[in-house]
Each structure stands twice: as structure tokens, then as C-alpha cells.
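Help needed: design a sequence for this.
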């Protein structure tokens, strides 16, 4: 790999509480048992990619306030490059307050502004990933739509994880329209079962995958199903991969770890870049989804968005 994977989207601080109604404190460890940790779905994916050994550049925006300093230290400490303009002294770092239920499943309330610096493609970049709030919150969402549209003839693989947030975009019809527009510019789309239920209620995962695969560009759809694992669907194959039995601490960042491992698995098999997933076989698809399921499982066994390294995956699962 001669150039880093490019990840575009929000970096923020997750303020994690112990249950509904928990209020954020101050600093890294707040009152009432809350804790501030680096997060934001695209930022988590960038960290996950770097920990899996892929050079990674993140286009985001955060400030130089205490939360921004915490984010910067986290990203740099994990080997993530920051695109020019991503650190802005005049910008207030965004936050997400996460409450955990008895099963460790998080719900979020966001205090976020999204306006990215200029977007450009480095020569040799094998993949561009985006998703989550960055793809629906203006004015940054429009910048991402234009940028992905400019990549139609570029030799780069595009991946998308909508990571629907009903508190940000409560109307599923308009949100699905936005997802379809970006999905049509993407080679791989990853959704969760919760995304599916919100965006296309009444449809099965396979029906949703068929909808997304109906455009020329999209070649693969992967849908996660929590403790049941994930399915992967291409035009030539369908795989159903179970999740390993684990003790869940919380689910924060699990989907992002899954996404990072999907991209890393595609890279290992030479399916990024100009090939744009051409040659993706049923065996490859099963192996890649299995790798991603196992990465997510490790994240669920520890607090916060803490994706595994490649060495941890090998040590835990032999993956």
C-alpha cells in the first residue's frame, strides 16, 4: 500500500454514563460514574484500521479545547494521520452522551457540528470510507456527496456505513433517500439490523441488500446482527456468519471495529483500489465477514470504542 486509506467523518468525545439519565461530568472522568472517551464512528474506524496495520488518514474537525486535545492524543497515539485543517483552534469539539442499558447497549444524544476541511484524494489511495452523522448533517454532508461523486472514474474502492442516528435524522424516508444516493457511489455498504429496522421497516435484510445491489457500483452489502453475527451479500454469493459466544461489557464501537476489519480483510485479499471488489468470491466473503465479526466481538468484551489490533485477533481467534 503506497498511500493511506482515507476516512472522512466526525471525531468526537463519547461521554459514557451508567444508564438512562446519567449526566456528563467534566474532564476525562466525570461525576455520577461517567467517563469521557474518544469516539465518533469514522474516527473509530480510522483507529481500527491503523491498529490492523493499514496506513490511515482521517479528514475530520475538532478543536484545541480539552476534549480536542484528548482526541488528538488518541488519534496520533494510534498512528492515524490527520488531514490538513482537521484540528481547528476556532472549533468546539463535538460530544456524544451515551447511556448504557442493562445489556451494555448504548443510546446517544449528540452535541455536534460538522463542516469538514477541503476533501481531496491522494494518488494511490486504495479506499475511501465514510458514514454516520457526517453523511447526513449539513453543511458537511453536501461536501461528502460532491466528493464521492468526483470519484466515479478514480481507481479507488469506496465503503459506506450509514450508522443511522434517529436523534439526528428522525425521518426514515428522507434518511433512506440520502443513504441510497451515497450507496450508489459506494462499492460496499455496511448496515446494522437496527439501521435496517429504522430505515426500511418491514423489509428483510436480504430485501434491503437486493435494493442496494440494484445499482451498478455497489457490489457487496454486509448487515450485522449483534450477537447473531452478520450476513454478507454480493451478486454472486450470500454468507451467514455466526458470532462467537462472549461476555458483553458494552457495545460501544463494535460496529466500527467490524467496519475496520472488513476494509482490512478486503485489503489482505487484494480487493481494494482499482479492482473495486471484482473477484470477491464466496470463500473470500465468508472469511472477511468472519474476521470482522471476531474484531467486533473483542471490542464488546471491553469498555468503550476500543478496537483490537491484528495481533489481538490472531491471539484470540487465530484470525
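Sure. Designed sequence:
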Amino acid at each position: 500500500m503506497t498511500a493511506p486509506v482515507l476516512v472522512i467523518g466526525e471525531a468526537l468525545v463519547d461521554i459514557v454514563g451508567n444508564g438512562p439519565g446519567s449526566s456528563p461530568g467534566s474532564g476525562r472522568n466525570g461525576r455520577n460514574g461517567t467517563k469521557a472517551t474518544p469516539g465518533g464512528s469514522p474516527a473509530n474506524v480510522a483507529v481500527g484500521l491503523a491498529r490492523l496495520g493499514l496506513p490511515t488518514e482521517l479528514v475530520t474537525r475538532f478543536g484545541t479545547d480539552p476534549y480536542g486535545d484528548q482526541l488528538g492524543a488518541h488519534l496520533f497515539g494510534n498512528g492515524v494521520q490527520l488531514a490538513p485543517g482537521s484540528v481547528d483552534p476556532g472549533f468546539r469539539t463535538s460530544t456524544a452522551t451515551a447511556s448504557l442499558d442493562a445489556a451494555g447497549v448504548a443510546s446517544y444524544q449528540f452535541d455536534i457540528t460538522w463542516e469538514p476541511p477541503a476533501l481531496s484524494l491522494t494518488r494511490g489511495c486504495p479506499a475511501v470510507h465514510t458514514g454516520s452523522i457526517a453523511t447526513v448533517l449539513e453543511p458537511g454532508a453536501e461536501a461528502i456527496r460532491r466528493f464521492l461523486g468526483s470519484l466515479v472514474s478514480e481507481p479507488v474502492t469506496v465503503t459506506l456505513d450509514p450508522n443511522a442516528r434517529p436523534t439526528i435524522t428522525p425521518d426514515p424516508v428522507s434518511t433512506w433517500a440520502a443513504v441510497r444516493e451515497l450507496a450508489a457511489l459506494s462499492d460496499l455498504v455496511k448496515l446494522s439490523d437496527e439501521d435496517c429496522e429504522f430505515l426500511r421497516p418491514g423489509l428483510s435484510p436480504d430485501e434491503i441488500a437486493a435494493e442496494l445491489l440494484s445499482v451498478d457500483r455497489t457490489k457487496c452489502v454486509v448487515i450485522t446482527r449483534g450477537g447473531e453475527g452478520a450476513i454478507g451479500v454480493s451478486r454472486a454469493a450470500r454468507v451467514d456468519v455466526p458470532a462467537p459466544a462472549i461476555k458483553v461489557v458494552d457495545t460501544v464501537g463494535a460496529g466500527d471495529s467490524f467496519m475496520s476489519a472488513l476494509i482490512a480483510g478486503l485489503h489482505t485479499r487484494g480487493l481494494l483500489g482499482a479492482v473495486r471488489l471484482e473477484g470477491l468470491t464466496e470463500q473470500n466473503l465468508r472469511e472477511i465477514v468472519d474476521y470482522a465479526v471476531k474484531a467486533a466481538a473483542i471490542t464488546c468484551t471491553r469498555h468503550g470504542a476500543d478496537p483490537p489490533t491484528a495481533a489481538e485477533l490472531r491471539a484470540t481467534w487465530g484470525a
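The domain at 5-9+41-80+115-317 is CATH 3.40.1190.20 (UDP-N-acetylmuramoyl-L-alanine:D-glutamate ligase).
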